[in-house]
Amino acid sequence: MDEAELRRRLAAREVDVTELVAQAEADARADVAETLRRLFAEDLLERALAAVEPSPPSVSLVGVVEADGRAVPIVQELDPSSLRETAALETAARAHNDLLLDRDAVVPFRFGTAFASREDLDRWLREHEAELLAELDRLRGAVEWGVEVVATEPRPDEGTGYLEQRLAVGVATADRARLAESCRRRLAEAALEASGDAYLVADQDAFAGVLSELRNEDVDLRVTGPWPPYSFARLPATAAT
């Protein structure tokens, strides 16, 4: 309705003023809401762009090994601005892990442990070299395995009631917990250390023997590894983040 038509209808008393005011208020609210949405979106975009402003390349500490009685770093040059895409981030994380594999002794560091410069990294290594060499001796020849007991949930029986089905689920869950705990104890006996479903293993044959026994007992296991001993490395506090 244009302004001329509105004036004509008002003069002819053909318009319900109360309804007109209500409609005007609704239109005004819609305009305000749209403006707020636009401003909010612009603010979010500005915050996001600020968060991904290019930052200088950093030196990522992948791990520490020993050479000629010294702690030597494994490094990965990272440019944070190149890791904005998921694919690039995944590639860098895989490269990080690959650098740690097939080593007799390594202190692994989590992906993203970074220093502003190589000088900062070398200074940190000198300060903590004794701790790192001791940790290398402790981890020598050991790798990490992950072992999880897998159990399917009981399928509902259409011939039973709700309470009976819930009871069956509860019993199955309790049985699975007992089985998992029993498996953990047996696997831990063949490992140097255990933490949940992770095991620090030096005697690979003994550990593989326990896995074989459990499978022969029809225990369904999800096994991953061998990995660098991420879960068991005792890192100097200043580099644990």
Report on this structure.
- The structure is a single chain.
- The chain is 50% helix and 18% strand.
- The chain starts with a helix and ends in a 14-residue tail after the last strand.
- It contains six helices and eight strands, in the order ααββαββαβαββαβ.
- By secondary structure, it is of the alpha+beta class.
- Strands 1, 2, 3 and 4 form a four-stranded antiparallel β-sheet that branches. A four-stranded antiparallel β-sheet has the order 6-7-5-8.
Number of strands: 8
Q: Which percent band covers the strand fraction?
A: 15-25%
SSE run = HHEEHEEHEHEEHE
End-to-end separation: 64 Å
Choose one word for the global shape: flat
Rg result: 31 Å
Number of DSSP helices?
A: 6
Largest sheet: 4 strands, antiparallel
Percentage of residues assigned to helices: 40-55%
Look at the helices and sheets and give the structural class. Answer: alpha+beta
Mean pLDDT, all residues: 79
Note the quaternary state here. Answer: single chain
Which regions are unreliable across 5 or more consecutive residues at pLDDT < 50?
Answer: 165-172
SSE blueprint and pairings:
Blueprint: H1 3-11, H2 17-51, E1 58-67, E2 70-78, H3 86-98, E3 107-108, E4 114-115, H4 118-139, E5 143-149, H5 162-189, E6 193-195, E7 198-201, H6 204-216, E8 221-227
Antiparallel strand pairs: 1-2, 1-3, 1-4, 5-7, 5-8, 6-7
